[in-house]
Amino acid sequence: MKWEKKEIPQELVKDLAAKYGCGLITASILARRGFVRGEEIRYFLEADPGHLHNPFALPGMEDAVDRILAAKEEGEKVLVFGDRDVDGITSTVLLASFLSRLGLDLTWRLPVRDEPYGLSMDAVETFAREGGALIITVDCGISNIAEIDRAGELNIDVIITDHHNPQEELPRALAVVNPKLSDSAYPFRELCGCGVVYKLVSALRFALKTELYGQSLCLLNCRPASGAYTIEIAKMRNLAVTDTLFETVVPGMVKITETRLPRFLEGQQIFVWDAKLQTSLLSKVFGSAVEVRMMDAAPEIGKEIPHAAGKTLVRLRELSKIAKYSSEDIQELDVFINLFTSFIRRRERLFTADDSMDLQLAALGTIADIMPLKDENRIIVRHGLAALREKPRAGVSDLLFKLNLTGRRLGTGDISWQVCPAVNAAGRMGSPDKAAFLFLEQDMVKRDRLADELIAMNEERKRLGAEAWAIIEPMAEESLETYCGKLALAYGEGIYRGVTGLMANRMVGRFKVPCIAVSFGERVCTGSARSIYGYDLSPLLEQAADLFIDWGGHDFAAGFSLERKDWEAFLERLKTISRLIEVPDAPEEILRVDAELPPAYLTPDIFKVIDHFEPYGEGNKPLLFMSRDLRVAEITFMGKNEAKHVKLTVDTGAHRWSGVYWEAAEKVRAGFKPNDKVDMVFKITRNWYNHVETPQLIIIDLKPAGQPQPQP
User: Among residues 244, 240, 205, 243, which one has the least CA distance to residue 58?
Assistant: First the structure.
């Protein structure tokens, strides 16, 4: 392994530390990971939910809210339809529980047994027979064109909430809420399905709590500008800026009617900061005869946000967090917008304990779907994990107890390796409704039984996975020759449908090429495709789309189904497709060190830095440290049948650290002994054993002290 510690200018580190108020180690890690823009850094340094993006910036959101509120008003039957994985189950639970509390006539449904992924014809037609009027899809729907057309024929409206890649043709739904639509102006594409549902619920809460919902208003500010005056206006709807106007006017040169202001302001509520000052400035520009009806927002905002009281926008700009984190020059109007938005959020108490309960589900969906932990996903997961530690919601708490996770400091690893597989097992075994019932059930006895069922299904899933792998591995290896060494394929009736995704993942790890695992049903073949880094699956599947019943997914994980009668045609098509696959070379394994810690810095205080960068996961890997000249105090070999692993204790002088070095027994026996000095690359974790938490190193590589490190 090669060790790489990227060189970064010390001045940059000092500037970041000074500007953002963080320590030098934190600043150096940010710079080394390429986070030097304020817009990125704020999601590592800020946890306030006020930094979440406005849900109404998502396409179709207001139409979706209007239709749901109309369904509530008219007492219409509503169906929430979700997908069978963790993201789909949590999405269904989140929306169904919220709408039920609102009093809607609601049912929910997930694909069970051998039903296809996504909205089905049967679900649409059954709901129509029951007198249904509105279907809301969650974590699915973006590829269900025929099913949604059928709903329209049956006079059922459909709202799609999804996060999967849209295909060229969009379903003809009443509203499509998806951050990945080509015309989406939403600032972050990588929400999970449950994240999109959380946004919908947040938008509904806003609509129900404040009279501002659906109303347009303007924030106006007039300021001197080199012998002239600039009038800047932001038009807002549901706290999202929908339009802006900047007009620079020399006093006495034009009448107000000759500017764009009257048309822009027509019919709007106009808010200003310091009405007395704004009236005076506008009089200088247009004369005292011109009267602009305005409301002074400063007094009310000052009551809710005391640090803003009595200050000018110029002064508040100097204190503004939005200015600190912005890469562009922040104007007084930007500060006003931020203040007004924060004021409404606080006054209306838009973030409550209910949000904390909801974010537990959104965090599960985000982690399970391996969404990048960047931007607002960091706030979603951070708050969700904090709420899980403090007061897990019903159903989740029962599952944590069964998994022996109660009372510990839950991290993303606990969720991804223990909680999510147990929930996912319900869907893989054809009973995702069992997981949904667990999270919705109020009776403790029933929840206990359901949690046991999920654990049992996960054990059965493991058994089926082991049986499937015995079939898949040799078949996939043999298929490489057929597909030019660029694609691996395994298929058959002996592969259980619920484990194809897991098997495709395992195939990628084994063969390092795009892989497809397919389960044969009586009439339909259902497949999962997984890719390697740098190769997008969408073009591959598009070339066979005419053979599919349906297909869709993400860039590196997708699924499809097709009739068994089309299987041979699909195999021939794959032969042609595989010739055109350009698999990027696997990158050489390089240990990219985030920070070098001198032995004196290797103290428990380092957890302050480590915790700062949580949550860890996709797009934000655990921090990797390097230390030199550490003394090996103890070496213990570990393993049940064969001692393959090593427990290593290193002495820094003031502290001793216990570390685990996996699959390294042979290397340590051959090259190291107690009292040796070593250089080491490692992660720092918390080990939980017998209800006691202790610091622990996870050793990644080890070399004799002073040995030159090969550079990439």
Answer: 240
